[in-house]
Amino acid sequence: MAAPRSCALWGYCGRGWSRVMRGCRLPGLRSSWPGSPLGARLLSQEKRATETHFGFETVSEEEKGGKASPDSTFCLDPMEMIHEDPPQFYQVFESVAKKYDVMNDMMSLGIHRVWKDLLLWRMHPFPGTQLLDVAGGTGDIAFRFLNYIQAQHQRKQKRQLRTQQNLSWEEIAQKYQNEEDSLNGSHVVVCDINKEMLKIGRKKACAQGYKTGKSYRKNLQLGLAWVLGDAEELPFDDDKFDVYTIAFGIRNVTHIDRALQEAHRVLKPGGRFLCLEFSQVTNPLVSRLYDLYSFQVIPVMGEVIAKDWKSYQYLVESIRQFPAQEEFKEMIEDAGFQKVTYESLTSGIVAIHSGFKL
Amino acid sequence: MVTLLRGTLRPLRLFQALPGPAADVPLRAASQGTGLLYPEHIPTSLLQKVLLTAGSAGMALYNPYRHDMVAVLGETTGCRALRVLRDQMKRDPEGAQILQERPRISLSTLDLDKLQSLPEGSLGREYLRFLDVNRVSPDTRAPTRFVDDEELAYVIQRYREVHDMLHTLLGMPTNILGEIVVKWFEAVQTGLPMCILGALFGPIRLSAQHLQVLVSELVPWAVQNGRRAPCVLNLYYERRWEQPLKALREELGITDPPMHIKA
């Protein structure tokens, strides 16, 4: 399997290995060389031989279709990616994956739905927007995004209908010829480091009626793709997405600055970075009640519902470790974003940070 | 107002785990490392114990297959009863030996081949038969986590591991009816609130026919035997594998069950 594909790859990707390999997630090939420009990843010679065995489904399809587009985003088949040294929180999320949604509802008393809705309203996407949702395992943001776009499309169609009551038969016939896809080119890619969370997200997508294709490219056309990847080293090319969101995921990243740099890299110029995350509470009374609730009630809930005290203890501790609104804003600015703002919700329990790549 | 509240509540140690963390973080539970009395220990505050009690009781009733919830209930409510049990064990010579040597019953400590080779009717052989017929293993017991005393944590662990022995002694299978009968016996013997609650609320899920049999014959028999027998935690079962079961029953004053319950 390795040899013929690698030949095709050599012949096809005229720009050479570097662009191809940037997308590769390989064990052992960690951080970029110091001093290299943002995005270029130079790889050592001796690693090339082992790189070919990863699934190259998407590339071969391109080759078959004859679409010569070295600039296209490609992603390796998610389920073949192997992560060598899973970070500490990986095992935590493996065990919490199944009960994740139930526990979210119980712990936040359902308020997390409002927070995520608010994030979408701040984003205000329109048909044609390409979203990358990182650490979006079970797909909450992705589904909301697709619903938002579809609702907009429906509203647009209703408006159009009202103005089109006096069309001639010819014009009506023409309308049938231009079938407008409800998504109109928008799609969302859900990227998560954890396979279990992605599996659950996929199941939810199927249950809601979203079709899934066999390859990444096909999934993009259908509007929803699931990719296994690390926020610190995204398997995507530069300048690919209009919006990058990360909801309740960035506090689990070991090197937040790297994740922010990656976000900056994959966004198109003019793209927007949005982060929904737990933050510091400003009001002292709310802070005491919040502490009490977090440390006394949440681990108990985790034990009773999910049979897992320790994971939820870790969760509430990781929330406390995360920097406050102003500090995080500065970190985002350091990564190269401009016009960075934040909005505290529920007295600062969560905050939405927003920045633009200009 | 908040400081006033804190001032009155602090002596109650409602929000602090025992042993408590630093005084300047009164509302935060101790994280790992500080104050662990035994490897699996999770220090909990009074409020957490109350919430755990309520939550585990509710979940155990809602989903009877959550045996871990019954175990947690036992740990959070058993403080007083465990102390009484521990003192009882200290007074008895065999019990004191158990407390000192801390034997554990698990697949790694049991010599299954030796038990298999024992004669029919002996405790070891009957115990093995019980495990086979009911398809259970001594390794399914969760470790103790929420008891804030290391010796008491061992006592409750011993109680859990001896539970299977009680099934063998009483001749009860591991279905709901058999478990309730054993719970009644244990409630009388140990006085653990979890056993009492289990004995009283367990029958909720029984059919009318079973309930009638339980109330009329099985419960009186279990209670009578429970009162008559000495503390079952004082028996060093690991040294009694060869003892014939009948002889052990006579020693403890346990009569035959009024009817045979199928597994």
TrEMBL record, chain A:
Classification via PROSITE patterns: SAM_MT_UBIE (PS51608), UBIE_1 (PS01183), UBIE_2 (PS01184)
Membrane topology category: Peripheral membrane protein
Molecular function GO terms recorded: 2-methoxy-6-polyprenyl-1,4-benzoquinol methyltransferase activity
EC annotation from Swiss-Prot or TrEMBL: 2.1.1.201
Enzyme class: transferase
GO biological process: methylation
A UniProt-annotated Pfam family: Ubie_methyltran
Subunit structure: Component of a multi-subunit COQ enzyme complex, composed of at least COQ3, COQ4, COQ5, COQ6, COQ7 and COQ9. Interacts with PYURF; the interaction is direct, stabilizes COQ5 protein and associates PYURF with COQ enzyme complex.
NCBIfam families: MenG_MenH_UbiE
Job of this protein: Methyltransferase required for the conversion of 2-decaprenyl-6-methoxy-1,4-benzoquinol (DDMQH2) to 2-decaprenyl-3-methyl-6-methoxy-1,4-benzoquinol (DMQH2).
The protein's name: 2-methoxy-6-polyprenyl-1,4-benzoquinol methylase, mitochondrial
